[in-house]
Amino acid sequence: MAFNDFRFRVAYRVVLVGLTMAIFVYMVTRPNMIFAAVLMALIILGQLLELYRFSSQTNRKLTRFLESVRYSDFISGFAYDNKLGKSFRELNTAFNEVLEAFRKARTEKEEHWQYLNTIVQQVRTGIISFDPEGEIQLINPIARKFIGISNIKNINELITRNPKIHEALLEVESGKSILYKGGADVLLTLQATELRIRGGHVKLVTLQNIQTELQKQELEAWQNLTRVLRHEIMNSITPISSLTSTLREILEHDLTKKETHYELKQEGAEDLGEGLATIESRSKGLIKFIDAYREYTSVPQPKLKTILLKDLIEKVTQLLKPEIKKTNIHFESSCESEYLTIQADAEMIEQVLINLVKNAMEAVEDKPQSHILLKGWYSDNAVLIEVIDNGPGIIPEAIERVFVPFFTTKKTGSGIGLALSRQIMQMHNGTLTVQSEPDVQTTFTLRF
Predict the structure, then answer these.
(1) What is the DSSP pairing of strand 330-335 with strand 371-379?
(2) Do domains 123-209 and 305-447 have the same CATH topology?
(3) Model confidence pLDDT, tens digit, residues 210-253
(4) What is the third-level CATH fold of 305-447?
């Protein structure tokens, strides 16, 4: 109805104020109506205040809306003055829609937070975050277990109760990881990252116990090594044992006792000689195998120095040139930049590269168009050295085992070269990996 329209009500109040002021003027001109004029002035003041209050509803509504947003009060609504016309209804509807959007956003945010918090609390990795003052922002039960304190608000509380883990939490740099030995069954790897939240810096550290996984890997490594040792030793001991029995039978049947001496038939003597030669050969093979095992388990610590990658590759190329000239292999070497350097023991890395190139030479020796490439380059924040050949490659079933000590795919190989090479790279805090596509290309990669 028109009587409920906001604009009509304002106009009505303005007209009423005008009429009241006209009456007030009339009374002021009459001496006998002074008291009535005073009363009329009070009425006019009240009308003006009412007009101001009524006309300022929009400002109050906007203020209440902004306060609702500021204090996250999305429960209240705007509808009580819808009778004041279409403009008020549209304004109320807009305010209510905005509040409803905020309400849904907050609900979704709370659900998302609850979901993430549940994940953080349930994962088997410790998670802890803290600001530069040490105030803990987030910590899950696993992290509490690792640090040994169930109720902690600031990591500086660890200074007196667990100083080693406190030092480790502060020491670990963003994007890097360190190891922390916490006990017989706890070996933690700490990884950190830094975040900027609400204008402040927060350090997030994850703690993962890798002791069980290491024990599993260690057990698997020992099982593989034991399997290889058993295989190699049995390959030597079994024929020796068999030959010993055979030789004893030869002596029993072909050895004849005379008065003052023993005589052995010529055929028996030949068999005896052959048997003893075989025993000697297998014994030497077993000694060679044991020497290889000793070599694998007694690698000296590397003496790290800054080495120009270009010089290293050129030296390895010169050392291998005499052997390569005897073959039909097309050998290339290159270095992406003459300024690339690595921290390494030059002799040990030369040993690794020579071993890899020799392996490649053996792999391609029967191939008509054989090719080997030794190259150094920089990629993904690391210096890489690759040995690439176009030999027969490594079958998928064997590619994971080529670094197992004493495992070999060659008839005359000892199975120690690749295992020793990987061990040397690990001592340089690097890696040695292989990728192979049979009959196409095989690539061994040293990453520093």
Answers:
(1) parallel
(2) no
(3) 777 777 776 776 776 677 667 667 766 777 777 777 777 777 77
(4) Heat Shock Protein 90 (3.30.565)
Q: State the burial class of residue 138 (Cβ atoms within 10 Å of its Cβ: 0-12, 13-18, 19+).
A: middle
Q: Please give the Cα distance from 390 to 331 (Å, whole number).
A: 11
∠ Cα 206 105 77 (to 5°)? 145
**How far does the chain reach from its first CA to its final CA, in angstroms?**
84
What CATH number has the domain spanning 123-209? 3.30.450.20
For 103-169, the DSSP string reads: HHHHHHHHHHHHHHHHHHHHSSSEEEEE-TT-BEEEE-HHHHHHHT-SS-SBGGGHHHH-HHHHHHH
**How far apart are alpha carbons 130 and 340 in whole angstroms?**
38
Q: What is the pTM of this model?
A: 0.46
Q: What is the DSSP letter of 407?
A: -
Q: CA-CA distance, 171 to 181, in Å (whole number)?
A: 14
Q: Is the pLDDT of residue 292 over 70?
A: no
pLDDT for the residue numbered 69: 65
pLDDT tens by residue, 107-140: 788 887 787 777 777 778 888 888 888 888 888 8
- Residue ranges of domains in the chain: 2-102, 123-209, 214-297, 305-447
Residues 23, 24, 25, 26, CA torsion sign: positive
5 pLDDT above the threshold of 60: no
Phi and psi at residue 179, in whole multiples of 5°? -105, 145
Query: How much helix, strand and coil, in percent to the nearest 5, is found in the chain?
Result: 55, 20, 25
For the beta carbon of residue 68, count every other beta carbon within 10 angstroms: 19
User: How far, in Å, CA of 191 to CA of 169, rounded?
Assistant: 9
Residue 437 neighbours by CB under 8 Å, 6+ apart: 393
User: Torsion-angle region of residue 429: left (phi > 0), alpha (psi -120 to 50) or beta?
Assistant: left
**Strand, helix or coil at 198?**
coil
pLDDT above 80 (res 427): yes
DSSP collapsed to 3 states, 37-86: HHHHHHHHHHHHHHHHHHHCHHHHHHHHHHHHHHCCCCCCCCCCCHHHCH
Contact 192, 176 (CB under 8 A): yes
Torsions phi, psi of 5, nearest 5? Answer: -70, 140
The residues, any chain, with a CB within 8 Å of residue 333's CB and separated by 6 or more, are: 313, 314, 316, 317, 373, 374, 375
SS3 category, 343: strand
The 10 Å Cβ neighbour count of residue 126 is 21
